[in-house]
Amino acid sequence: MKTIKVLWRQSSALLCRNIRPIPFVCANSLHSSTKSPFFVSHTLLPEDINFPTNLPHNAPNQLFQLFCSESSLNTMLRRCWNCKISPTSSELFLVCNSCQCIQPVDPSVDYFRIFGLERKYDIEGSSLERVYKDWQKKLHPDLVHTKSESEREYAAEQSARVVDAYSTLKNSLSRAMYLMKLQGVHVDEEQTVSDPELLAEVMEIRESVEEASNSQALKLIQAEVQEKMKQWSEIFAKAFRVQDTEEAVRAIHRMTYYKRANEEIVKRL
To answer: Cβ contacts of residue 114 below 8 Å, gap of 6+?
Structure first.
């Protein structure tokens, strides 16, 4: 245990030497595709680091793994600006569970965690809506107008992030793209697709929309487009579950074209 304490203090001293944000790089924090390190976004002070008392006396490797875990490191470093209490690994750090003060935005908290959801494609819209309303109530300007200027700014930033998270997750296409982004895969919506079958189908849909004589005809075409959107949404869900990146990206490209077709129909209705 003495050896671990010495290692911990040496590591703490090294981290606290610079007052500027410093890159904290380790094997587990480098994504296989992006290779981008996790950056500590605020000054490290000795009191920011809680020494773990439950590590086995013969586990220096566990200490290294603890430092190299982005979520564990984030939990150790983050403290409520008001009551100075650190959140547990299971707590969401938008609002402090101890004093209920609104916290600065923590980029490591992804959109799914904001809504208490697993990182998966199939989600319940009703639960998303419920949690969204709960967060907006807590972050509403009318409820924080008596707070300090800093906390009002935190509330505005957190509220904007919750809105962005909600709009991203409630839409099947943006949710799919966000999931791929979390996996380190960027899918460009504007990328030109050279799939002859898809391009021919899109051309046929456009011609049908242009030739539609009334709103009833347009609604029939819209129903077909929405059905195709649903089918490819299911294909993406399956591809994502089995980690078939190529098929998942292909499904997103299909969904993107069907989304645009639907938007054209809506303009004519």
So the answer is: 92, 94, 131, 135, 161, 162, 165
Residue 94 shares a structural domain with residue 157: yes
**Which of helix, strand or coil describes residue 8?**
helix
CA distance linking residue 110 with residue 244, whole number of Å: 22
Residues of the chain with pLDDT under 70: 1-77
What is residue 32's predicted lDDT score, i.e. its pLDDT?
Answer: 38
Q: Is the dihedral of CA 192, 197, 203, 208 positive or negative?
A: negative
Mapped onto helix, strand or coil, the DSSP state of residue 83 is: coil
Task: Read off the pTM.
Answer: 0.70
Question: 239: burial class by Cβ within 10 Å (0-12, 13-18, 19+)?
Answer: buried
The amino acid at 173? L
Over the chain, what is the mean pLDDT?
78
Residues 200, 162 share a domain: no
Q: What is the pLDDT of residue 3?
A: 52
For residue 13, tell me if it sits in a domain: yes
Residue closest to 45 by CA, chosen among 86, 87, 89, 4:
86
How many residues in the chain? 269
H or E element in which residue 38 lies: strand 38-39
